Amino acid sequence: RKVFFDTHALVCLLEENGFTTQQSEVIVSALVKIVSTNLDMIYKDMVTKVQQEIALQQVMSHIGGVKKDMIILEKSEFSALRSENERIKLELQQIKKQVMDEITKVRADNKLNLNLEKSRVKELHAQQDRALTQTDRKIDTEVADLKTMLESHKLDNIKYLAGSVFTCLTVALGFYRLWM
C-alpha cells in the first residue's frame, strides 16, 4: 500500500521542531498506521467494477421481469377497469342530472324568496320615507318657531341694551354737568 505523503520530510520537520529522531519516527509510524487503517476501512465498503456490473445485470433482469408482469397485469386488468369506468360514468351522469334538477328547484325558490324580500324592503322603505318626511316637517316647524323666538329675544335685548346705554349716557352727562 502506498502512503500519499513524504514520511522522511515529516520526520525532518518534527526534528526541527524539537523532537528527537526516535520520537519523530514513532509519530510518523503511528500516522502511517492510522492512514492505512482508514484506507482499509474505506476499501471494505467499496465494490469492484466487476461486482458493480454483476449487480447492474441483476437489477436489469429484475426490471425486465417487472415489465413483463406489468404487461400481463395491464392486459388482464384493463378490461375490468374499462367496464368499471363505464359504470362510473353512467352513475356520474345520473348524479349530474339529479344535481341539475335540484339546482333548478333551488334557483326557483331563491328567486321567489328574493322577490318577496324585495317587495317587503320596498314597503319598509316607503314607510321609513313617510316617517322621515313627517319628522323633517316637525323639525322644520320647530326650527322656524325657534328662529322666531330668537328674533323676538334679540329685539328685546337690543331694546334693553339701548335703554341701558342711554341711561348710562344720561348719568354720565349728569355727572359731567355737576362737576363743570
TrEMBL record:
Transmembrane segments: 160-179
GO terms for biological process, alphabetical: calcium import into the mitochondrion; positive regulation of mitochondrial calcium ion concentration
Keyword Transmembrane: yes
Compartments in which it is found: Mitochondrion membrane
Region forming the signal peptide: none
InterPro entries the UniProt entry points to: CCDC90-like (IPR024461)
Family statement drawn from the similarity comment of this UniProt entry: Belongs to the CCDC90 family.
Family annotation (PANTHER family): MITOCHONDRIAL CALCIUM UNIPORTER REGULATOR 1, PROTEIN FMP32, MITOCHONDRIAL
Protein name: MCUR1 regulator
